[in-house]
Each structure stands twice: as C-alpha cells, then as structure tokens.
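RECORD TYPE: inverse folding
INPUT: structure tokens
STRUCTURE:
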C-alpha cells in the first residue's frame, strides 16, 4: 500500500520541492522521490476532487479550445506537436490497414479527432460527461465514459495514448498493467506528462500552471 510519505512507484523516501498556493483552502505540495526522481502532488487528489475540478471547466470557450482558450495556440499545438507525434506513432504500424487507437482521457476529443484524420481507427475514453458529449457532437467520435481502471473490453488495440493523464492516476502500476492487457502483442503505448525540467517550471516554480 502506498503512503503519502513514500514514493508510490518504488517505495523510497520523498522530499519536498514546492508548497503550492492554497486552492479551496486545501494546500498541496510537490514532492520528489529521492531514489527514482518521480514528482507528484501530495496529498494525491482522489477521484471526487479531480471530478470537481474538471466539472468547473464546462464553458463553451473552454470546451472549444481546452486549456489554451485560443484557436491559434490550439492550431500551433496540433501542427507542431500532436500531428508529428501521431505520424511517428503510425509509422510503427507499417502496413495492414487502419491501426486501432484507444485515447485514454481524451477530454473533448480534439486530439482523438486529429488521430482519426491521420487514418487511425479511434476510440476515446473520458470520465467527464460534459467533455465526452461535446466530443461526440462536435467530432462525431466514439467516446466511452469510463475510468480506464473500470473499462472492460474484449477488443485489443494497436496503440493506446495518454496525453496528460498518468499524472492524475493514484495507482499508475495498476493502470499500466490494465493497458498492457488492452494492447495487441507488439502494440505501443504513447504517454505524455508534464516536464518537470521545462522552461516554464524553471521560471515559475510553484506558480507553474500545470501544478495547479
């Protein structure tokens, strides 16, 4: 059992990096494992806390452009980051028709829709009903409302993607084992998480917006 005073991956001791500004009178800290270097929030938010945070972000502007609140920044991210990343991923498949992709934590589905445009056979997985419904209506996507831990499927996938999802999961080992069972043999998992050594973190430190 993982505790708040140890690393939930390797069980080693942790150290404090930042104390974050209070949000809703609940202070959080960023801690780092002294052994493997994993950084995480402490205490880890539970599902109800995370659901409360994301149900507050349901305005039309947020749903349309997500965290950027800008069509131009969203377009830049698609052209410079998302499309090249998915194209590299698709090259791993080679021939054999459309590769299947499960996009875990797909939010409004805009990245999932980019993958479909690149000829992936896509399925989205999202726990927020507002986001999921928006993605179904705007992009005509197959988005299933479920946590990955609770997701049941007889289907296997060539690829599974997780864009800024793993850092929200309290038991990543359990989730990664579940994902392994959902992948075809030789399938590939794409994980994108915040970079603790990014320029933004070095400048803003505890005020970096991905921490909040």
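DESIGNED SEQUENCE:
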């Amino acid at each position: 059992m993982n505790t708040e005073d140890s690393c939930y991956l390797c069980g080693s001791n942790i150290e404090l990096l930042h104390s974050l500004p209070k949000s809703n009178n609940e202070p959080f800290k960023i801690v780092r494992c002294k052994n493997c270097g994993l950084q995480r929030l402490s205490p880890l938010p539970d599902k109800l806390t995370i659901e409360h945070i994301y149900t507050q972000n349901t305005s039309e502007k947020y749903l349309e452009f997500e965290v950027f609140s800008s069509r131009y920044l969203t377009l830049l991210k698609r052209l410079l980051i998302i499309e090249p990343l998915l194209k590299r991923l698709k090259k791993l498949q080679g021939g054999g028709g459309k590769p299947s992709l499960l996009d875990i934590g797909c939010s409004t589905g805009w990245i999932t829709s980019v993958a479909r445009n690149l000829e992936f056979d896509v399925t989205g997985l999202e726990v927020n009903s507002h986001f999921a419904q928006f993605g179904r209506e705007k992009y005509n996507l197959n988005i299933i409302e479920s946590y990955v831990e609770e997701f049941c499927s007889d289907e296997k996938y060539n690829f599974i993607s997780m864009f800024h999802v793993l850092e929200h999961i309290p038991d990543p080992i359990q989730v990664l084992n579940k994902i392994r069972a959902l992948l075809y043999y030789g399938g590939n998992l794409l994980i994108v998480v915040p970079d603790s050594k990014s320029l933004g973190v070095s400048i803003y430190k505890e005020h970096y917006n991905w921490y909040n």
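NOTES: The longest strand covers residues 183-192.
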